Amino acid sequence: MTAPPDTARQQAPPSDVYRAAMAQVPSCVSVVTTNTPVGPVGVTVSALLSLSLTPPALVVSLTSSGQTLSWIRRSGAFGVSVLGWEQRHLVERFATGPPQRRFDGVSHAFHLGQPLLASAPVRIVCALEAAREEWDHTLLTGRVLWCGHRPEAAGLLLHGRGRHPVPHHAAG
Fold first, then answer.
1. What is the pLDDT of residue 99?
2. How many CB atoms lie within 10 A of CB 23?
3. What angle do CA 32, 30, 92 make, to 5 degrees?
4. What's residue 27's pLDDT?
5. What is the pLDDT of residue 129?
6. Which of 33, 59, 106, 169 is found 20 to 30 A from 76 (Cα to Cα)?
7. Spatial distance between the Cα atoms of 63 and 77, rounded to a whole number of angstroms
8. What local confidence, expressed as pLDDT, does residue 100 receive?
9. 3-state DSSP assignment of residue 150
10. Left (φ > 0), alpha (ψ -120 to 50) or beta: where does 112 sit?
């Protein structure tokens, strides 16, 4: 039996190499939002996972230096709008520019005080249960307070730096 490599001294790959590798992992794309005294704010995320069914909970990953994260910490709650093919144009809009301007002209509604994109195929409202900083990101654990979905909507996947539709398939 050979000894395992000494991983403690192994150098990490360059960030551009790692970014290119991770771009090959298909992921959903969501907009994480919260309400502030100056109006709704939100940011695009591709790291979202279901954590628990009992109680219903999820985890999202946000850049630790982002303005949206600081507003979520203050409010103690956040919304998640999982984007569908119809919302693919919103991926860049919620990823760049001032967070307080990203909702300009975007149809949204408030549920339990949190802004959600009106036509998103999946909409979720969470209470912030924990925030754990890991390197340059913060993992937010949210206890799900409400969720809704549109099963007929086509989904959206990010893969290879492109946006791809996930067609709706009827059960049966």
1. 83
2. 15
3. 95
4. 94
5. 98
6. 106
7. 17
8. 81
9. coil
10. left
Residue ranges in the chain modelled with pLDDT below 50: 172
- Among residues 157, 149, 162, 78, the alpha carbon closest in space to that of 119 is found at 149
Give the helix/strand (H/E) hosting 108. strand 108-111
- Identify the pLDDT of residue 158: 93
Distance in angstroms (rounded) separating the CA atoms of residues 107 and 150:
16
| Amino acid code (one letter) for 162 | G
Report the distance separating Cα 121 and Cα 123, nearest Å: 7
CB 155 within 8 A of CB 166: yes
Q: List, for residues 50-66, the tens digit of each pLDDT value.
A: 999 999 999 999 999 99
pLDDT at 117: 98
Per the rule left: phi > 0, alpha: psi between -120 and 50, beta: everything else, 142 is beta
* Burial letters 129-163, b for 16+ CB under 10 A, else e: eeeeeeeebbbbbbbbbeeeeeeebebbbbeeeeb
